[in-house]
User: Which sequence fits this backbone?
């Protein structure tokens, strides 16, 4: 149970406070309701590039990092298809430094051309480091457009291609800022060694004067229902064949989400799961295999992925995965099996709440559902899933016509 | 009207509370415990002080032995172990190490009593089934192949090898053949000689659970004490090793050398000096090579403390064409550190950042325990942290300059590049 207080400023900024005096630091988490799904297909990678620019000086402050470090603080940020999230930790007595820094960059950026130029280079190196310069690094770069035909989830957060990052202009930067970085599209969580009353005063003082922005109405293309199995093959200089299969499923705040999440756990979470026991341990078709869900806000994917053993063809390996799926569809699941994945999901949830920053992030994210208290309902949602519910849903998700398959083949093995 | 150009007044962090770990015993086993935290969770870690690669007869034995613990014991099969852990929503992780590896159990405290018999059986009477070893070897060989396609992994391995050499345990590089040749007998022998002694570290909301743990291990038989009788030495020679790869889009660089250990009087000074050079996001290397030049996504300088040796390593993945300039800039930043006293504003920032990040790194019971492990492993006590904080508060620009001259001289550094 994460206790919190919340209020909204006149400019629309939502503020959530989670007091925990057992923690010696204070944290501020600011979520901007914008991710790579909000980009134009011609200018992808922008939300993430923009995240970098947020550290390059704001309207009245030359540099973001230095004053924070002087106050004993640390910070970072991440962008994903749904959100851009900034967070900092600071000694409680220097909490106001965090408010000063975060409010100034919500008010306006320096828009320094040198910062844009350097960060374009840094992001291109990040692109290479994560996506190009390691085996299978480009897997999702190639696979996303197979699974998503219309929805912007078809490109990765880093961008479709390096060219899009290179071509970003200062006008693009400004337009993006004034469209998305406004108080009415942000959620701020202040947590740890803090007082709600103090946070109210500081929020009014630093964020209160920032003008409300125009409302952003999200109107993204819906992904049509998939009606036939999709297939793609890549041959690359990688050590072994990798099989990836993805099935469309509901988004994070959908009532059916948790049940489908548990289906993925039954199939492929850790070593006790069906896929691992049958295809790695009992018979050695794979050297690793697991299943998980992407957990995105718009309809996401249930993904099965595994590295195929050396003496097995990837075609044969795929057949074996289908036979595990068909067994589940034909014979259903065991009560004990459901109990097991529920317990795993419950402890994962509790473990994730040990860290104060994770609690702050969870509160901010839950607020996007429209109800911050969603954060405290997840445990119940897990317990409410029944065997019948799973058996009803499984055939709707785990069907061939809902599946995209990628063979990422090893050049060496398939020579 | 709010003046946003003026920062709020900041306060130096003078004091904070590092909860101390207590000690008890169960039979012959030392138990270090910390009752803390608001979530109903427990982390129970078994640390093998002489179980690491340093002590193994051949590369790979320690890692496979640890992993095999989970794959069968007198009373449970591999599948039963996996099922029971999952049934109680628990996670059992293997943490390999050059020196003291561990296995750690993370669980809700309400399930600890149900899990203790399984954990005991895994630790005290593993069965090391042949077929499980074969499965693990197959998986490990594939993992190794995959790892060896990554420039940053190869660079780190080659760097260690260049520092310590093929014969010294810290310098060895594991091969596929090493894994293939390991037998059940190797594993059993290593278990008996090196993994049958362990220490317990337990943290979280312990309540009455500490007593269950004590009861559970009180019949553990006393074990022979190990003494490090290894006579192997290494002879460090600075080298430059380049492994060029035409199809790489980036080059991985490692620069460094062996350096003083944690118990040395100058260690904290070294740590602070290293922090200024490349220990955090605002460091000089990061500002120069990432924020000014845009050659990389990140560059860091770190001090790695192994049990018997320590080393300094500066590492980064950079634009291929910028290799020469990156090395020149590293040289330049070290030279500035050696010749120009640090400004008081930069020193203030470094001080507050070091203390602030220490404070935020002790926000969970698990993290507080890991702070204890870091000193315990090196035979140090809590005075290390008191000294750490007071040294940060009192260090002056000339001490930093002298430390840079003493420990960062460039002529004896090894440089490894891949890609």
Assistant:
């Amino acid at each position: 149970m994460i206790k919190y207080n919340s209020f909204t400023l006149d400019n629309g900024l939502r503020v959530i406070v989670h007091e925990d005096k057992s923690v010696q630091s204070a944290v501020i988490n600011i979520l901007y309701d914008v991710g790579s799904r909000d980009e134009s297909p011609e200018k992808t990678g922008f939300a993430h590039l923009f995240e970098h620019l947020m550290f390059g000086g704001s309207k009245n402050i030359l540099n973001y990092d230095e004053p924070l470090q002087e106050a004993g603080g640390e910070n970072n940020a991440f962008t994903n298809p749904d959100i851009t999230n900034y967070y900092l930790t600071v000694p409680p007595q220097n909490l106001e430094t965090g408010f000063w820094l975060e409010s100034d960059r919500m008010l306006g950026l320096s828009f320094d051309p040198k910062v844009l130029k350097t960060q374009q280079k840094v992001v291109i190196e990040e692109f290479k480091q994560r996506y190009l310069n390691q085996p299978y690094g480009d897997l999702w770069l190639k696979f996303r457009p197979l699974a998503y035909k219309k929805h912007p989830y078809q490109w990765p957060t880093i961008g479709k291609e390096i060219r899009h990052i290179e071509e970003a202009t200062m006008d693009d930067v400004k337009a993006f800022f004034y469209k998305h970085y406004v108080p009415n599209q942000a959620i701020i969580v202040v947590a740890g060694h803090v007082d709600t009353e103090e946070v109210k005063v500081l929020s009014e003082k630093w964020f209160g004067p920032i003008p409300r922005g125009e409302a952003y109405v999200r109107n993204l293309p819906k992904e049509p229902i998939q009606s036939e199995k999709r297939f793609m093959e890549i041959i690359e200089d990688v050590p072994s064949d990798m099989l990836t299969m993805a099935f469309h499923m509901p988004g994070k705040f959908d009532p059916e989400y948790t049940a489908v999440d548990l289906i993925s756990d039954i199939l492929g979470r850790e070593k006790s799961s069906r896929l691992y026991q049958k295809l790695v341990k009992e018979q050695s078709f794979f050297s690793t295999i697991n299943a998980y869900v992407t957990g995105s806000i718009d309809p996401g994917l249930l993904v099965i992925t595994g590295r195929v053993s050396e003496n097995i063809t990837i075609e044969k390996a795929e057949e074996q995965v289908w036979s595990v799926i068909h067994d589940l569809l034909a014979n259903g699941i065991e009560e004990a099996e459901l109990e097991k994945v529920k317990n795993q999901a419950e402890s994962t949830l509790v473990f994730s709440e040990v860290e104060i920053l994770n609690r702050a992030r969870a509160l901010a994210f839950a607020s996007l559902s429209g109800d911050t208290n969603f954060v405290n309902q997840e445990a119940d949602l897990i317990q409410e899933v029944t065997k019948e519910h799973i058996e009803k849903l499984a055939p709707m998700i785990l069907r061939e016509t809902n599946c995209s398959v990628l063979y990422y083949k090893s050049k060496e093995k398939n020579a | 009207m709010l003046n946003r150009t003026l920062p709020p007044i900041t306060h130096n962090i003078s004091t904070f509370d590092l909860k101390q770990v207590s000690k008890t015993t169960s039979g012959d086993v030392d138990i270090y415990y910390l009752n803390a935290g608001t979530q109903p969770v427990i982390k129970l870690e078994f640390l093998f002080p002489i179980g690491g690669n340093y002590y193994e007869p051949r590369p790979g034995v320690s890692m496979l032995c640890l992993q095999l613990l989970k794959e069968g014991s007198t009373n449970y099969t591999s599948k039963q172990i996996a099922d029971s852990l999952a049934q109680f929503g628990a996670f059992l992780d293997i943490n390999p190490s050059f020196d003291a590896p561990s296995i750690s159990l993370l669980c809700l405290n309400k399930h600890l009593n149900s899990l203790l018999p399984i954990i005991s059986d895994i630790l005290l009477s593993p069965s090391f089934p042949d077929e499980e070893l074969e499965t693990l070897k197959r998986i490990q060989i594939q993992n190794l192949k995959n790892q060896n396609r990554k420039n940053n992994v190869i660079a780190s391995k080659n760097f260690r090898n260049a520092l310590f050499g093929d014969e010294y345990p810290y310098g060895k590089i594991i091969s596929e053949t090493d894994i293939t040749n390991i037998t059940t007998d190797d594993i059993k022998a290593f278990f008996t000689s090196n993994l049958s002694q362990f220490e317990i570290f337990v943290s979280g909301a312990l309540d009455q659970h500490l007593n269950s743990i004590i009861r559970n291990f009180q019949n553990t038989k006393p074990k022979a004490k190990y003494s490090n009788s290894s006579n192997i030495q290494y002879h460090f020679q600075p080298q430059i090793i380049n492994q060029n790869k035409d199809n790489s889009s980036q080059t991985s660089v490692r620069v460094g050398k062996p350096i003083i250990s944690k118990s040395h009087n100058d260690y904290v000074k070294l740590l602070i000096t290293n922090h200024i050079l490349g220990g955090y996001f605002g460091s000089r290397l990061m500002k120069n090579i990432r924020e000014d030049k845009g050659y990389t996504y990140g560059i860091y300088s770190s001090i790695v403390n192994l049990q018997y040796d320590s080393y300094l390593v500066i590492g980064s993945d950079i634009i291929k064409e910028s290799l020469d300039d990156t090395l020149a800039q590293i040289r330049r930043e070290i030279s500035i550190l050696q010749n120009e006293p640090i400004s008081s504003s930069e020193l203030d920032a470094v001080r507050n950042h070091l203390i602030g990040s220490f404070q935020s790194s002790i926000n969970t019971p698990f993290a507080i325990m890991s702070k204890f492990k870091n000193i315990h492993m090196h035979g140090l006590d809590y005075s290390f942290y008191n000294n750490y904080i007071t040294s940060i508060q009192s260090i002056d620009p000339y001490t930093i300059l002298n430390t840079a001259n003493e420990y960062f001289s460039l002529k004896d550094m090894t440089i490894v590049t891949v890609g």
Notes: The first strand of chain B starts at residue 22 and ends at 26. The CA atoms of residues 336 and 401 of chain B lie 9 Å apart.
